[in-house]
Each structure stands twice: as structure tokens, then as C-alpha cells.
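2024-03-11 09:14:02 DEBUG pipeline.ingest accepted 1 chain
2024-03-11 09:14:02 DEBUG pipeline.ingest length=41
2024-03-11 09:14:03 DEBUG pipeline.predict start
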Amino acid sequence: MSYAMAMSVTAVTVFAGAVLVIALGREKRGIHFGGEPIIDE
């Protein structure tokens, strides 16, 4: 395997892992930091 191929495989692996971690993270979507809290009634 050439150096370029190894680097591309590593980059794709790291990028895909980062996408999964971000997509499955615990952060609640739609939160406006610094604003007034939204209360669901």
C-alpha cells in the first residue's frame, strides 16, 4: 500500500468516526445558548 493510499484510508476513517460521534452525541438540538430558556407547556 502506498503512502498516499494509507493516508487517504486514515483520513476517511477518522472523518467517518467524527461524523458518527457528532451525529450520536448527547447535545440537544435547537438550544440557543445565552438566550432565554424555552419552556415546553
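2024-03-11 09:14:41 DEBUG pipeline.report The mean pLDDT is 83.
2024-03-11 09:14:41 DEBUG pipeline.predict end
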